[in-house]
Each structure stands twice: as structure tokens, then as C-alpha cells.
Amino acid sequence: MNMMRTAMLLATMTALFMGVGYLIGGSGGMTIAFLIAAAMNLFSYWNSDKMVLRMNHAVEVDERNAPEYYAIVRGLAANAGLPMPKVYLIDSPQPNAFATGRNPQNAAVAASTGLLQRLSHEEVAAVMAHELAHIENRDTLIMTVTATLAGAISMLGNFAFFFGGNRDNNNPLGFIGVLVAMIVAPFAAMLVQMAISRTREYSADRRGAEICGNPLWLASALDKIARNVERIHNPEAERNPAMAPLFIINPLSGERMDNLFSTHPNTENRIAALQAMANEGVGRPAQRTAPQPTAQRSAPSRQQGPWGGSPAEQAAPEQPRPSGPWGRNPTGPKGPRS
Taking the model in full, what pTM does it have? Predict the structure, then answer.
């Protein structure tokens, strides 16, 4: 079923790409656009994950330079029955994370230093479980390829402004076609991309809660991430907005709307769904708990969650820890806990 959805989506995005080409250059432009789209689909299948990681300046880490972070992912992958993905760290103060890769055997997860600094151990585990759920559901390929094609359609729409007004370009609709190529086509690509992202986030939330063992951990993590994203700028995401649906929370500043134009479901709605899961006792199967870095760490109570206080106290952002394995540059000097 997922393969069928992926094929249908790629066909839709390719048709949009061809439509923009037709509006810019008629039948010749449509043919060129088809060839470009086919090449991009093939290239994206094999390289889109590397492109996304490179655009975010992600650095691969292991158990030597990020022991707790790596151990969390390893334990959660075992809980989910997935191959161990590659683990990356993004040097960004904005707390966020994403997963990428064409299949579970070639997958990667990435978390920002801001996420590891501001969230508790259990909350980090819940976020990474959410990303592993995307890998298990094979969302990563379709979301990454869609992001690549949506960005290309938007760029092609911009080209229409410069090349679409020529009387000799076989454009059948003239200036109206140029306007459609500039505005409507990129807008349609954005809607397709956002609709896919929003429908998949709820599924990943639910499966992620099952993998980590407690829906309340993910509920608290989403709340903290959303509060910090509102005030912490992410310049890489702003420069490449097509990547926004890949993240667990929209990294773009000022994105508060829960409507047709939002790349993610409303955070409050996601939290409410997770709280309902907790009330129903869903997501707490045997032996599915957050991987613990030390034997001394005690399990949090189900009533309080991993925060150790009331919901109002839990919502307050934590101050970054000056040391430890979370926020350290993996390529820089190693701390005493490495």
C-alpha cells in the first residue's frame, strides 16, 4: 500500500512539474519538464537523504562522541525491530529532529543540539521513537522526495517570470499561463506536500508512543519543542522551506496556523491525542521503555511523566546543560563523559 501511495504521489508531482513546463514553453517545455522530473525522481530516490542532511550541516555521531544519544536510538530501534539507522547531530539551538532515507535499511535520524539540551532523557527518547516510526512506515522516502520536487516546482515557477513572457516560446496561454506557473503550480505542490505531512504525523505520533512506551513523554516533548521553535530561529530551514514537513515540529518562524496552509497538525491536537492514548493505557507494551544510560536512573511515574512536576511546571523550558553528551560538537574536544 505504501509503495502504491508513493507511486501515485510521484505521478502527481511529476504531472505538476510537466504542467508548469507546458505553461512556460508549450509542448516543448512540457517534454523538457518531464525529462527533468524523471531525472529528479531517480536522483532523489538515491540521494535525497544525503541532500537533506548536507543542507542541515548534520554530522554523523556514534557511541564514542554522543554515547547517551546513540544508546537511546539503538535501544528504540531494537524495540521497534528496525535496523540501526545512522545517527546525526545538527548544531542548532532550535530543538527539532527528523528522519530520512529511502528504506529502513538505509535510514538516518537527526536531532539538533537544542533538542538534546532542552529535553529530558525520556522526552528525547519519545522524539526519536517518533522519527523511527516514520522509518518503519516508510514515510521518509515519500516525504523527502516530495520536498525535493516541491522545491523544484517552486523554482520552476520563478523561472516562468523570466522566460514565460516571450511571444516565441509556444506558451498557449500567454501571460495568464505565466501567472499560473508562477503562483498556482507552486501553491498546488505545497498543498500536496503539506497534506501528506499532516496525515503522517498523527500515525507517527501513535507508533512512536508505542515504541518508547509512554505517550506522555512525546506529549511533553512536542509542547517544549513548539514553545522553543516560536522564539528560536532556524536559518537553514528558512532558506530551504521545502524541508519543513520533514521535522517533527515546523521549524519555520511564524507558522502558527492550523489550517490548509500548515505543514503540520496543530500541536495542541497532537498532544490531546497522545494524552487520550495514555488515558486508554495505549502505548505501554511490556519491555518498551526508554533506553536508560545508567542503571541508577529511576523510571518516572505514569502520572507525572518524565518531568517530575505538574503540567504547568513541565512546560517551562529547561536551561541548556553546559556539559554532558547532548550539546557537544561531535567533531570538537571530547568531554569527560565521552
Answer: 0.71
pLDDT tens profile 309-320:
333 333 344 444
Question: Residue-wise over 263-291: b if at least 16 C-beta within 10 A, else e?
Answer: bbbebeebbebbeebbeeeebbeeebbbb
Catalytic residues: 131
* Residue 264, annotated as binding a ligand: no
d(CA 128, CA 217): 11
130 is in an annotated binding site: yes
